[in-house]
Amino acid sequence: MRRKAKAMGAAQSNDSIKRRSGTTGSSTSLSQVDMFPVFPLDILEEIFLNLPLHQVVCICRLVCHQWKEVADSESLWRERCRREGYHLKDASKVPKDWRLFYYLCKQRRNLLKNPKGEEKLKKWEITDNGGDKWKVEKVMVPHPNEAVQINFITSYGLCRKMQLIDLSLEGYNPAFMDHFQPDIKISDWYAPRWDCGSEYEICVELLNQRKRPIQTFAPETIYFEQWNDQKWCQMTHVFRNYGPGVRYIRFAHGGKDTQFWAGWYGIRVTDSSVEICPAGDA
């Protein structure tokens, strides 16, 4: 009898809760509106503007239709770009997808490690080490970027070094690379010694999962005569519309002197970079 009375009391209590909440039936629960109040869109957008990127994309946009609409809106991501200082280089070229533009700006960084030689030759794989081998020392003439004070130097035998960038490990998963195919910008600075001839070469490859080339940038070797002005030169290239399948980037460069002088009279390289960029903003 006690068990029966207890059960009847619980049932009456549940009925009372249902009446107060305006729900009936055993399969009905509190409505989504009760759980997530409807905010004016401009207030909801302001809330999202103050949340971390991953919370807006991975959590907020999954709550309900209204939240998804705001999380996907052009105005949200355009305003986020403005507040965080991500500007278009060419104001006439409006991004097709402001969220993608924001993400690529947020993620943009040099994917090469130790590009200026501040850690000696760490992070680089030496593929050729001719003559007296690679060396790292202070720049002979000022670099256009005052922060660059160190460079790599080649010798009288061919010197090459390379890095292999795993895009997935850097945060660019295969589905993203295949669907969006963002611009990939490479840059490299090189300079000769004034008193010795030298040569410079570079080869950058976009590789598939098997590390086979999909696209290659390999300009002709550049030669410098003896008694040159030893100015810094910049090599740049942007990979666009390269198709699906890119999983790695292999960056390799180097050179040597052309007069077979013992020591380090060959080409100097520094401040190399590989960046994933918004389309048209490289």
Automatic annotation (TrEMBL):
Q: Give the transmembrane region(s).
A: none
- Domain called F-box: residue spans: 33-80
* GO CC annotation: cytoplasm; SCF ubiquitin ligase complex
Signal peptide (UniProt feature, chain positions): none
Q: Which GO terms describe its biological process?
A: ERAD pathway; glycoprotein catabolic process; SCF-dependent proteasomal ubiquitin-dependent protein catabolic process
Q: Name one GO molecular function term.
A: ubiquitin protein ligase activity
Q: Has keyword Amino-acid biosynthesis?
A: no
In terms of Gene3D superfamilies, this protein maps to: 1.20.1280.50, Galactose-binding domain-like
Please verify whether the record's keywords include Transcription regulation. Answer: no
Annotated stretches, region: Disordered: 1-29
Q: What keywords is this UniProt entry annotated with?
A: Ubl conjugation pathway
Lineage, top-rank taxon, reads Eukaryota
Q: Which residues form the FBA domain?
A: 101-278
Q: What is this protein called?
A: F-box protein 44, tandem duplicate 7
Taxonomic placement: Eukaryota, Metazoa, Chordata, Craniata, Vertebrata
